[in-house]
Specification:
Number of helices: 3
Largest sheet: 4 strands, antiparallel
CATH class of one domain: Mainly Beta
CATH architecture of one domain: Sandwich
Mean pLDDT: 91
Radius of gyration: 26 Å
Order of helices and strands: HHEEEEEHEEEEEEE
Distance between the termini: 32 Å
CATH superfamily of one domain: Immunoglobulins
Length: 176
């Protein structure tokens, strides 16, 4: 996406004219550049942090001779994304996988569900199916490379999965 395309997208979302949006975008980028050049750090809550960092000096082969030259350290702009941005990107672009859940502790239950952040802790979103032996099974689609935090909703009571470790709140923590 180019700067012009970004300005057009923002203009469509906000209802502000393209010309005004381009002006604001240009001013924003100029301000970030000026502040980084002044050695300041720019924090955008929930998005990331722009800062200037000094690299280390290094050695390289001299392209005009046979020796080695010292390259002095340089100051470079750096962007560090915050967790909200990282998680959003992972959720949208990460590899989708199916995860199986098996609840063996609710043989006499009437209704069992898997609840967690992946379904906003809603017991109606991922109901489990009863197997002939009395155990319960469910399958959900999620993104790989994350830790699922969940519990089993068993007839109105929340219980952790004894097959995996739990955090201090009793939420099961399962690496996917």
């Amino acid at each position: 996406m180019t700067k012009e395309e970004l300005a057009c997208e923002v203009a469509e979302r906000t209802g502000v004219s393209r010309k005004d949006t381009r002006t604001v975008l240009t001013a924003l980028l100029e301000t970030i550049t000026e502040r980084l050049c002044a050695g300041e750090t720019i924090y955008l809550r929930g998005f990331g942090c722009f800062e200037s960092k000094e690299g280390r000096k290094r050695r390289a082969r001299d392209p005009q001779g046979d020796g080695i030259i010292e390259i002095p350290p340089r100051i470079r702009p750096v962007f560090r994304p915050y967790n909200d941005l990282k998680q959003s990107i992972q959720a949208k672009l990460g590899k989708k996988i199916k995860v199986d859940f098996l609840c063996l502790t609710a043989k006499n239950a009437i209704k069992v569900s898997v609840v967690g952040k992946f379904n906003n802790w809603n017991e109606n979103r991922n109901p489990m199916q009863r197997l002939p032996d009395g155990s319960w099974v469910a399958e959900i689609d999620t993104v790989s490379g994350q830790t699922l935090k969940y519990k089993y909703w068993i007839d109105g009571k929340l219980e952790s999965d004894p097959a995996f470790p739990a955090d201090s709140n009793g939420n099961t923590m399962r690496q996917i």
